[in-house]
Design a protein that fits this description.
The protein has helices at residues 27-33, 98-104, 116-128, 138-159, 168-183, 192-198, 203-211, 217-233, 243-249, 255-266, 270-274; strands spanning 2-8, 11-18, 21-25, 39-46, 49-53, 56-60, 65-67, 74-78, 82-89. The chain is globular, with a radius of gyration of 20 Å. With 279 residues, it is an alpha+beta fold. It folds into two domains: 2-158, Regulatory protein AraC (Jelly Rolls, Sandwich); 170-274, Arc Repressor Mutant, subunit A (Orthogonal Bundle), CATH 1.10.10.60. Helix 3 (116-128) runs antiparallel to helix 4 and helix 6 crosses helix 7 (203-211). The longest helix has 22 residues, at 138-159.
Amino acid sequence: MRVTTHRLGPLHVITTEAGPRRVPGTARAVARFTADGQVTVLLQDSGCAIVGQSGRRTPLPSGSLAFTDPTRPYTLTCPDRSRTHAFRLPPQSLGLREADLRRIGEEPVRPDSGTTALVVPFLCRLADQAGTYAPHLRPLLARNAADLLATVAAERLAHDPPRPDGDAAGTLLRSRIKGFIEDHLTDPDLTPRSIAAAHHLSVRHVHRLFQQEGTTVGGWIRHRRLEACRRALGRPARDAPALTAVAHRFGFTSYSHFSRAFRAAYGMSPREWRGGPGV
């Protein structure tokens, strides 16, 4: 067995090459491995693996991605020689809630699924050459990788079929409203009332749609605006706008409020995320 590890800023890349093997993930081992609260995304570069978790055995064919649930014991079985990349990163980098991670962790993302065909080659090359990048490029590459994984996750969540006990019409309508919100993140007048008017719904109906998903309209708008700010702050320093300009662009009238919300969501201040001084 050959294992290589590299750090790219907050991103930890682990590549394992080996023959047939079975790796048990006991509760103790999982607790030790995830003590830092990181999320692990598996990429099966070659060969096939089988992930066993909660009584399910899920095949992970070559080119597939798996967003694992690190809170439960698992086993990884490789019947033949294979190569697996593991990308470990802070959950805040993906901009996903715990419930979202559980949903996308139920099935692997196939190599022919939407944007996955574009993302997988980038991640494979990133893992293969992780030790060669200049130090000043590593955090930027980590952010790019996180954004691409977040895109795959968001696409998967958007195309997930409704639950058996779900409301298909409500799911479709909620998806349309989320698209509307995404298109109007910079609109200072984006509110539940304006959303309801644009979709010819009552404000109460809009609130009910989001309550069915365990969130609120205002909470979702804030989450998506913070994600937009996070992406804007991830640009190279010479091209990045001022922190206050980013906050105001995406609807935060007070920088102090924006800074508090950003820290609550990502565990660091906007300045720390950017990695540079000044407002």
